[in-house]
């Protein structure tokens, strides 16, 4: 097997520049892509992102980036918006923070290229409230870019969140940006038709925007040749849990998951073994050690019954009891449910309650399964739809952890 | 307190949530008067501002304890024994009315789990000793 190696596109300047210095960024060729993009026809630029590079969103849904841009470009409106989703709240994910703390201008440049492509005059970067350093860096970067004339007639607004997981969902984020409580909106209309303030809006993740300058600079063909053909480019993986080298690593999308854990992550701590890996985020199921030998790209993951999600890799060793772990997750979802729809609001609370007194009886399992079925059918957004996934997956893989009283609780 | 000045300054820099956070920072919590000032500045009903203020976990409409300790309990911190740390802290500061101990959700610092916020300051790879020291420094 080829050893996993980092391949840095979005993190290409990390550690090489001072993130507070626009001069450093310019010295590394920064804002050249923006200049180049502005000489291109908007439709050609969008096509470059859409067809040739096949760039797909890096936030978790894997949706075609160019398709969004084309939709917003093609919608007639006097005002359009670019919104960057930097509300990185998925447990186990800290990649966007790595990008912004190392190289905020890459993100700014990506959003400005998008603004040009769709004809927007306002860029909003919505950063989760906990990332105070990121907010500070981005506000400085936006000012510096404006002072150097790179923003032209585009205004960049850096807006902080105030602690809410569900605001990471794109339509919820738009509500929050408008100063409202964060609740997901009915789609359609999609944000590209009616988004922020009811105007056509492109919402992309930090990592997605940060890949754009390099695509413009080196060409879509170059980008398309990296990694897996159906999901080309690189992916930032957040490695956490019981491994030696926790951190963010950028790898080609055809990298092997087990290899990433063992080579870049240094494997589990000495004297321990991998019990399972929660891949993709808090609502995802678990993978056993023998299921890890797969490519990380979106489609391979999905085919294997797993999910790339936001690229978080949480490694658990054999010391963990999965019932305890699922209780923690149940608390998380009960706390973060926005309250818009009854199945999620009521049942996330019920799941937490049932798991806190869980005895492992058939009646409890049947009740949980029926709650899960109702939630996946009736919940308004993915938060509720997936809230029971970790429990269902863990109980199937590790029934011995779910024997109630005998378990280590 | 000059709410209007804070609202004007912060709304030039960020969004309405930033404004609410700045008002909270200045007064220790979001008072009814502060929310009324925001409502009038944004031409919205006060009830809507209250809705927003009570929705987000970083916003508080009641005066909080003097010192607030938040232990992240989401997946990666949970995997690094944050639940045990939270329980120990709770029992140690149980009788101290100046300190509130609670769980918060993912802080996006999963590589340095477990993470704890003491009055908003991050302590990473947090131990019982670290948190106790931070609180002692703060005068508890």
Describe the protein's architecture and organization.
The complex is a heterodimer of chains A (409) and B (140). Chain A is an alpha/beta fold. Helix content of chain A is 43%, strand content 13%. Chain A has helices at 22-27, 32-39, 42-52, 65-74, 95-102, 104-118, 132-147, 170-177, 206-218, 220-224, 257-264, 298-303, 322-336, 342-356, 362-378, 382-385, 389-397, and strands spanning 81-86, 122-127, 155-160, 201-205, 227-228, 231-232, 234-241, 247-252, 274-279, 286-287, 312-317. The model of chain A has no long low-confidence stretch (mean pLDDT 95). Chain B is an alpha+beta fold. In chain B, 50% of the residues lie in helices and 13% in strands. Chain B has helices at 3-13, 16-27, 32-42, 46-55, 75-79, 82-92, 128-137; strands spanning 67-72, 99-104, 116-118, 121-123. In chain B, a hairpin with a 2-residue loop joins strand 3 (116-118) and strand 4 (121-123). In chain B, helix 1 (3-13) crosses helix 2 (16-27). Chain B is elongated, with a radius of gyration of 17 Å. In chain B, 43% of the residues are buried. The model of chain B has no long low-confidence stretch (mean pLDDT 95). The chains are: A alpha/beta (409), B alpha+beta (140). Chains A and B meet through strand 3, strand 7, strand 11 and helix 13 of A and helix 2, helix 4 and helix 5 of B.
What's the helix and strand layout?
The complex is a heterodimer of chains A (409) and B (140).
Chain A: H1 22-27, H2 32-39, H3 42-52, H4 65-74, E1 81-86, H5 95-102, H6 104-118, E2 122-127, H7 132-147, E3 155-160, H8 170-177, E4 201-205, H9 206-218, H10 220-224, E5 227-228, E6 231-232, E7 234-241, E8 247-252, H11 257-264, E9 274-279, E10 286-287, H12 298-303, E11 312-317, H13 322-336, H14 342-356, H15 362-378, H16 382-385, H17 389-397
Parallel strand pairs in A: 1-2, 1-4, 2-3, 7-11
Antiparallel strand pairs in A: 5-6, 7-8, 9-10, 9-11
Helix pairs in contact in A: 2-6, 2-9, 3-4, 5-6, 6-9, 13-14, 13-17, 14-15
Chain B: H1 3-13, H2 16-27, H3 32-42, H4 46-55, E1 67-72, H5 75-79, H6 82-92, E2 99-104, E3 116-118, E4 121-123, H7 128-137
Parallel strand pairs in B: 1-2
Antiparallel strand pairs in B: 1-3, 3-4
């Amino acid at each position: 097997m080829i050893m996993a190696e980092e391949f840095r596109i979005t993190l290409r300047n990390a550690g090489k520049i001072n993130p507070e210095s626009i001069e450093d960024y310019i010295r590394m060729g920064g804002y050249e892509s923006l200049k180049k993009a502005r000489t291109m026809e908007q439709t050609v630029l969008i096509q470059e992102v859409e067809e040739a590079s096949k760039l797909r969103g890096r936030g978790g849904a894997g949706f075609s980036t160019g398709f969004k841009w084309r939709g917003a470009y093609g919608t007639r409106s006097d005002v359009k918006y670019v919104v960057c989703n930097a509300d990185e709240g998925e447990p186990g994910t800290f990649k966007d923070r790595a990008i912004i703390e190392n190289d905020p201008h890459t993100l700014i440049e990506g959003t400005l290229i998008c603004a040009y492509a769709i004809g927007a005059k306002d860029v909003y970067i919505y950063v989760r409230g906990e990332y105070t350093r990121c907010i500070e860096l981005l506000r400085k970067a936006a000012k510096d870019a404006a002072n150097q004339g790179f923003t032209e007639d585009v205004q960049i607004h850096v807006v902080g969140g105030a602690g809410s997981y569900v605001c990471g969902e794109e339509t919820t984020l738009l509500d929050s940006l408008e100063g409202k409580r964060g609740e997901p909106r009915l789609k359609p209309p999609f944000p590209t038709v009616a988004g922020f303030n009811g105007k056509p809006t492109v919402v992309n993740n930090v990592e997605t925007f940060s890949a754009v300058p390099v695509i413009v600079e080196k060409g879509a063909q170059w980008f398309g040749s990296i990694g897996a053909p159906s999901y080309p480019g690189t992916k930032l993986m957040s490695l956490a849990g019981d491994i030696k080298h926790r951190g963010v690593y950028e790898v080609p999308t055809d990298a092997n998951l087990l290899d990433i854990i063992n080579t870049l992550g240094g494997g589990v701590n000495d004297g321990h073994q991998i019990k399972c890996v929660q891949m993709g985020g808090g609502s995802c199921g678990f993978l056993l050690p023998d299921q890890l030998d797969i490519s990380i790209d979106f489609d391979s993951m999905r085919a294997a019954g797993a999910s790339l999600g936001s690229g978080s890799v949480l490694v658990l060793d054999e010391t963990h009891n999965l019932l305890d772990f699922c209780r923690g997750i149940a608390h998380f979802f009960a706390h973060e449910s926005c309250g818009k729809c009854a199945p999620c609001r009521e049942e996330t609370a019920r799941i937490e309650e049932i798991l806190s007194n869980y005895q492992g009886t058939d009646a409890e399992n049947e009740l949980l399964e029926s709650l899960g079925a109702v939630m996946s059918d009736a919940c308004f957004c993915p938060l509720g739809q997936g809230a029971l996934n970790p429990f269902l997956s863990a109980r199937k893989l590790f029934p011995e952890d779910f024997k109630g009283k005998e378990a280590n609780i | 307190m000059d709410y209007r000045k804070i609202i004007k300054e912060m709304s030039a820099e960020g969004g309405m949530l930033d404004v609410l956070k700045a008002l909270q920072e200045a007064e220790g919590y979001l008072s009814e008067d502060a929310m009324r000032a925001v409502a009038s500045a944004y031409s919205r009903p006060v009830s809507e501002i209250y809705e927003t203020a009570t929705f987000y976990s970083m916003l508080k409409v009641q005066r909080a304890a003097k010192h607030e300790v938040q232990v992240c309990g989401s997946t990666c911190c949970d995997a690094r024994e944050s639940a045990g740390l939270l329980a120990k802290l709770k029992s140690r500061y149980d009788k101290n009315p100046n300190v509130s101990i609670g769980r918060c959700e993912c802080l996006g610092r999963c590589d340095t789990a477990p993470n704890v916020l003491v009055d908003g300051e991050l302590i990473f790879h947090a131990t019982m000793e670290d948190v106790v020291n931070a609180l002692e420094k703060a005068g508890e």
